[in-house]
Design a protein that fits this description.
The chain is built from 25 helices and 7 strands. With 567 residues, it is mainly alpha-helical. The strands form 2 sheets. It has a 5-stranded mixed beta sheet with strand order 4-3-5-7-6. Strands 1-2 form a two-stranded antiparallel sheet. The longest helix has 26 residues.
Length: 567
Amino acid sequence: MTDRTRITVLEAAVAAAVCGFLFFFGLGAFGLVGADEPRYAQIAREMLARHDWIVPTLNGSHWLEKPVLLYWKIMGTYALLGVSDWAARVPAAAHATAMVLVIFFFMRRFRPGSELDAALITASSAGVVAFARGASTDMLLSATFAIAMLGWWAWHQTGRRLWLATFYVFLGFGALAKGPVAPALAVLIVAAYAALHRDARVFLRSLWLPGLALFCLVAMPWYIAVQGKAPEFFRVFFVEHNLERFGTNLYRHSQPFWYYLPVFILATVPWTFFTFPALADAARDFWTRLQTTNQAESPAARKPLQLDESQAMTANADSATPITDDLPVFLLIWIVVPIIVFSISRSKLPGYILPAIPAAGLLAAEYIQRRPAFSRIQVMLHSLLCGGIMAGALLVPWRLLRDPVPDRTRNIIAGVSGVIAIAVLLMIRKRGRQWLYLATLLPVVLAMAFLLKTASPILDAALSARLLSQGIDQQLGQRGLAQHAPVAVFNVRREVAYGLNFYRNQPVGYYEGEGPPDLPSGIPQGEHVVVAPEGSRTAVEAVVAPRQVLRLGGFPPQHLEFFLVSK
């Protein structure tokens, strides 16, 4: 084994270990949160119970908003590890890890010396960490899309068809992860890159018929099968949940046009003060190249971009020398296109621009690798941000409990974050780029450890329905009642309903009759438990009269009460 191979193995092991902590540690520290996590986890459970790999269902009804890849992965995890909330999160963590390792080996090939930088920056970016730990489709799309785009760039640099095949195969997986958004973004990014070079053949050579066949082979069988079994699939998925979601505010996710600027800033923490200078450098390079293409070029200057495919493959088959060294510009386009596309969309959610975050990590690593030193103000801002990460983590429990922070606690938090900021500053000033990653990962690891160990009971109580479901069972058991009695909700957030749906493995009804279409509406006929906001007993009694209402207990972290309603 050569010295370079030993170093590569060691660095890859470091990257994998960082992923192991950031993505897998404490996956079950708190329960499933939001509406999507418990909903997707329950859909996979139902598909596994029915041994149905085609049609997603929720509470027995077709649920066709998203493709099937996440459900397949969760079903596999359930089969191996059993049904649990943390098992539902494993596929996202595994995809994030695979993405980081692919980035490591890609940079080793095309930017030797910056591979560990790129892997660590990507792995520790807030957007990647957050979605790698959630049972949602966003990380599966982001990981498969990132691998596809890296495959396209590798083909563009080397001319090897294996990389172009990788591009098409992983776009197929992206289409199974979240639908047509993966190929649509890829087309826009490659087209924008070709337009910058005034060379349509960059785009046209990418339209490879065997590659298109590979894409169809990966993605189309499920789409055809589900359309055959659920004829409403095309209307629900493509029309309602793609076209109407993009062009209207049907699903009430409207945000201002500039919404993704703060989202992008937060998603790149703690590397924000390296990411934005890297973006600025790439933008200057982009502008220079754009001006150059607007000027008359000599035939000799244009000749490299006019190589036909066979010439490009011959010239580059055994060489790492690129046709053009435009990686920063390519990464800039990769970042900007998703942000612009989803800024135009009428429906906006933070996870929509997650496919841009791996490119931001690559661009920051490439920028850091080229810099002999960092400016004093840049290091100071970075250090303050690292201290702010620790302060933010320490404040989370108080924010969730909505309690004022005592002066003594506030002083302790300020002191701890100040020590972290000073330590990061001194480490970088003393050792420079050598210790940049160690210094930056220190507050990230400490903040994660605090949230997943010390603060996890508060997070669990305030954000998840796991403890609420346990509390209901406990109160029913104390009264000698069936612990799996039917449950309904009244005037509560849909996150509570979907959470109870998963943790109780039973449909949760909506009293109001206007709940989500995948949850039953109306007051159950038999004896049941109803969950409502604190102080709702009179309202519940008025709705169910003349049936009797018995208060079973309360759940103060989410300001909820639950009642037993007689037959």
